[in-house]
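The following block was generated as part of the benchmark described in Methods. Ligand: protoporphyrin IX containing FE.
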Amino acid sequence: MSQTNPDRRHSRARVVVEFLGSMNLAITLLSALAVASVIGTVLQQNLPYNDYLIKFGPFWFEVFERLGLYNVYAALWFIAVLTFLLISTGVCLWRHTPSMIREMRRYRENVEERSLRHLHSRMELTSPHGTTETTTAASELLQRHGYRVRRRDADGATTLASMAGRSNRLGYIFTHAAIIIICIGGLIDGNLNLKLKEWRGEVVVETRDMPASQVPAESRLPPGATASFRGNVTLPEGITADIVFLNVRDGYLVQELPFAIELVEFRIKYYDTGQPRSYESDVIIHDPELDEPFATTIRVNHPLIHRGYAFYQASFTDGGSDLRLRAVPLIGSGQEPLEFEAKVGDRVPLTTHEGRLHLEVTEFEPINVFPDDETTERRFINFGPSYTFRLRDAAGNAREYINYMLPVRQEARLFFLSGVRETPNEPFRYLHIPADRQHSLNRFLAFRDLLLDQERVTDLTVDFAARSLNEGTAPESIADVALTMRRLVNLFGTGGFDAVIGHINETIPEERRAELSTAFFRVLESTLQMLYLEVLREEGVDFSNGLEDHDAEFFEDAVNAIASLPAYGAPFFLQLLDFDHRQASGLMITRSPGTSTVYFGSVLLMIGIFLMFYVAHRRIWVRITPNGSGSTLLIAGSGSRHRHEFEKEFNRIAGLLQRRVAAPERV
Amino acid sequence: MSAGSEAEMPPLDDDYRPFYRKLTPFDWGWAAALMVGAFITYFYFSSLMDIYELSILFGTAVGLIVLGWYWKPFRLFMIVVTALTLAGIALYDGDLARGQTNFFLNYLLASQSAILWMCTLYVLATLAYWAGLIARSPFAAQVGTATTWAGSVMGTVGLGVRWRESYLLGPEIGYIPISNLYEVFIQFAVITALLYLYYEQRYRSRAMGGFVLTVITAAVIFLLWYTFGRQGHEIQPLVPALQSWWMKVHVPTNFVAYGAWSIAAMLAVAWLVRDRIERKADGAPVELRLPSLEVLDDIMYKAIALGFLFFTIATVLGAMWAAEAWGGYWSWDPKETWSLITWLCYAAWLHVRLTKGLRGPILAWWAIAGFFITLFTFVGVNMFLSGLHSYGTL
Ligand code: HEM
């Protein structure tokens, strides 16, 4: 590097270079990049644009979009900071490399005595031995310590110039070159090429939702159109695809592949805790360049790499499982259950008492494992298959439900479980419908139907009233009591306990309420019991010796279930009869030809940093001048880092030299 | 050169033999024992390991051999740890229930107990070091050193036994215990303590112990809260993304860096304290046990440099793992990005140190800020930001 350049025309360029290569700029840029990176982590990146719009409102949405904050790391200003850092590192490297190499190669054997006397570490000795012997001794000693030695004789003195650890300087070059190499590799794998194509209008981002085959040509990229990409495809079992979707801002592009990939099966393996243990996709690659298709399995942490394209197991969803469903009416008696088929993802119109509803089947889970609450041991139980769906009314309002296919054991009783919630953020509230001995819904439905069957309830209550009241009670009173019974059952059957309480509050003056409501509830209870026994009788259950535990508990549970039906909100219970599970595997497909460049840079970086920190560039000079029959030695040294360690080493070497060359006087 | 004068010169001092010739029989015994251990492991478990895991096994053995040669006290530490861990495993004898019924397991060697011992010992060590510094008691400081060693032994034993326990829960569940927040906090405490013990011996000063052990105590407090407040100590099977040999190199490498940087930050605090006292004294000599500003600065630099090297390696390993698990070596995932931020922060620190004029307090405060950034990368990201790094959600 030229130290002085009188040429004025060059001076402005010099100032710029000086500035770009300055340490202060480097520090500023490193800090700026760090701060800029923070933004991308605080603001979640690459969400659908609608989410941002909802979050920030139209004004800030616009501002943030202009600033490129939804994809900070691809924003121009961010790339500009990065580029500046690259230029700065490059300039720095360019300016320092020549001097670093010079430092590595030059031994400085022509150093002046004066300069040596200025060094921090130095020592002077006199020896009875002649210069030839002392020179040899010093040279040998230095070499034993790993120093390379050069010798120069001039002006009647011998100078031994030696150094060790010069690869420290290489460390500087490696480290800073590595930064540049890594960034270049990253650039190759970035989406700059795609951006250019977009600017030139060669591709247009598609934002409409449509089948891939209908995406117009200007939104499609033929194989090899971009050196690198990262895209996704969701493959249901049995389907073959030869395209990948690249997400770009709020739209996508279709990247075509030079071969096709078929999903044979997607598998999840589970631990006994029900947590997933592995996700695997069995695939077949159909490549015209191969003689025959080949089959392989892609797992998490075990991607498939084929012709520079890498396939990763990224996600999974339902691929449209077939569900056989039965809608069992819960409101109004005399309706027949309706059986039909639906696929996950379907929207099925249903006509019910309460008007038209749309059933949207959203998910299906073949297993549901939960810790067993009823033991303290580490045990897990499988609740079996479940599925979630939404019921949307004509106004567009929807509730979400989760139903289990099989009855689930809770507190030693079996229930059909159905959870309901109004919004996705709240937990499900569960309806527990007791299962009968055949593990079916039949008894519950019979009981329920009976409650809503006006005619039969009338007959049974009249009969029941007559039996339970004292003989000789006037027929009008019997009719009155029966009417009360019927009304209570009716209220309870359609509106649960709330309706009963509401009725009491409306019809009875406050001062008598407490007393009469107890009586009303007792009447309701015994009427319900009577109706339940009627159901059992029809079933052919013999209860002449009293109810068995199961039947008694069933009554309690059935009453509770009916009481909570009004809050359940669906006019039917949707029972899953059978299913054919079909999964879809989400694959990420990438091409990143810059990877090896980045890895090379990374290795260089690690080596470079190691050399910089743990190898010290040290120099030791020994200047030997004749002194009578003996000689005088001036030993001096300097180290590029770790001053303490160097001083220790210097003192040892100088001490050893002293012991050696000055020995005779001491012996 | 005449034969006569050659004879008069004494031979070169034999202190400068090559490194390997200076090794003692004990050094060679150490190496042999580790290699034998590695081969026994290979013999029993090689069918369960892939080529990478085998490389890690033998790489670790070689690494430990060199570490033991370079830092002699580490060998006794490893021997005690190995003996206690094997004792723990033997006491379990294949039955997890013994953790509660066997006296030694229940009170000493079961991972939960060993880790509680570690917590206790580290807290005691902190108190002892501070007592040593404030009351100027060399004895108290010595107690600090001893309890720090003991705490590190118990922590490492706890992790070793836990490794076995995870396999006793079910062969398919078993995993190396460096995978969730609970386990990495133990790892952090132990690595930081060992690094500190190395510096303590190297610089012959126990005065920095109180500062460093304070960070470890903070980690211990978190660990206790996480154990008793969140049941974080329960062994949960690994999610598929974490079932990779990469984790075995990525995570420990990272924690060497975190440990080194924590030490650097606490040395920065010590630096600021000493600087403040010296300024107050206004040139008068001060009686302090703390090492001089220059020495503190030197150790701080070395710790940051060590951290920087390891963090660079860890990040590169992480990127390579990401390339295999997520489909790209760099995805700007929050954890990745914060690693970059941390890395840039310390790169800047190293450059600041090289520019004349910007020294002293600026470097110290910067190192402390760096620690908080590291802390955010370590736990904050998992708590506040969403991303692909799944371990340790609170
Ligand atoms: C991401 C970017 C960079 C990284 C990771 C990096 C890394 C490093 C490291 C680790 C050191 C060793 C520090 C030490 O010895 O304590 C160093 C030294 C140095 N860096 Fe950088 N650096 C970067 C950018 C730059 C830039 C842009 C410049 C331009 C001014 C620069 C100039 C230097 C210089 C002059 C040295 C001193 C070399 C010596 O004398 O041994 N660095 N760098």
